[in-house]
Amino acid sequence: GGQGSVHKAEFGGETVCLKKFLLVGVGAQSARDKIVSNFKKEVGIMDKLRKHPRTVDFVGICTTDASFLGIVTQYLPNGSLRGVLDDARGDAITPKTQIIWAKDIAIGMAYLHKEGVLHRDLKSQNVLLTHEWRCKITDFGISKSEALKTIATTSTMHGGAGISGTFPFTAPEAFSSRTRFTAKCDVYSYAIVLWEIWDRGKPWDGLDPMQIMHAVGMDQARPKVPDLMPVEVRALMCRAWSHDTAARPDFEDIVTQL
């Protein structure tokens, strides 16, 4: 993960997922203590959102090792949507499955927004697949946290993927440090995930972050619409990635349309 390393672990006799946020290099003990305190507070968000069929189940936190903070969630053996899109045979993903995935993600995001939580890092790597190949959103609440942003920066310096993996999913207005992140930024990210589901490729593959910022922000460019995408999904996607934030639908609307 861009904000930390992800590990398979055991808890209470069950396999779980452990995401570690490094505490090395964050300064004095008082600074660490503040981060741990904020971390616990922010994880309260995830605890509140503990059970929903379209979000990954939150199990708890791990603070026993002084070198890292850990978030423990359910383990989903089928991995991420991105991994499935990369690995599946051409005909293995049916049109019906594509619509189910699109709706699953929209339902999960509608729930988060209804609860007042912005995801801030919605992308195919942060959508996991259940045994029944249904989508669950993960890493919600984490990017919202100022405490975790501090740790994310540290983790990135120690070899994490950093923000570059997120750039292709970032709304044009979110590239500006003067602009507040809004629910409509998540909607833009969702549009790019829709594009992935039907195109199977990686958005803006081959471009570096600065080139993506210029293409999306200045030129108002968008990825080429996939040929096999249904007309109604195409229209929805194009509204969702509109440069005009007011033109983007909210997730309740998206669920209704799908």
Automatic annotation (TrEMBL):
GO molecular function: ATP binding; protein serine/threonine kinase activity
One Pfam assignment: PK_Tyr_Ser-Thr
SMART domains linked to this entry: S_TKc
Domain of life the protein comes from: Eukaryota
CDD domains documented for this protein: STKc_MAP3K-like
Domain Protein kinase stretches: 1-258
Protein's name according to its UniProt entry: Protein kinase domain-containing protein
Organism in which the protein naturally occurs: Aureococcus anophagefferens
Organism phylogeny: Eukaryota, Sar, Stramenopiles, Ochrophyta, Pelagophyceae
